[in-house]
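Supplementary Note 3. Input sequence used for the single-chain structure prediction.
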Amino acid sequence: MTTEPILTLHASAPRRAIACLVVGFLGLLLLSIAFFQPPAPVLQFVLLVLGAGAIWAAETMRRATALAIVLTEEGLFETSGRRIASMENIVAVQRGPFAFKPSNGFSIVLAEKGPGAWAPGLWWRLGRRVGIGGVTAKPVATAMAEEISRRIRH
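The predicted structure, written as discrete structure tokens, is reproduced below.
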């Protein structure tokens, strides 16, 4: 990321806290059921794996949402410097009510496939589609989608 930021999309603090707490609580709930009311051994193992997975997901979400998404002339980046999508690779922005996108966000379609990536609560990339949003503020995500749309039209 070498150019100046045009827009920065941060996770909303209340949404971030609620999302991490809910997913973490789910993990603790599953683990407590596995330990204090153990079902059949196979189900207990499943509950242990799902509980540990939920706690891992909550921690991953906490770390991912500590970062932000930055729009520059070159494209979309995390504040860590990881490239999400280059501007010349963006073909379309989708943000309608029936678009496949994260809540409070938008999705972009890429010309070329990118490697799969996921920052829970912030963004994901699967093939030619990138979803931006989740625990982000809707007004800033809308402004970012409009700015990207404006830039790819010209």
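Helices lie at 13-36, 41-64, 138-153. The mean pLDDT is 92.
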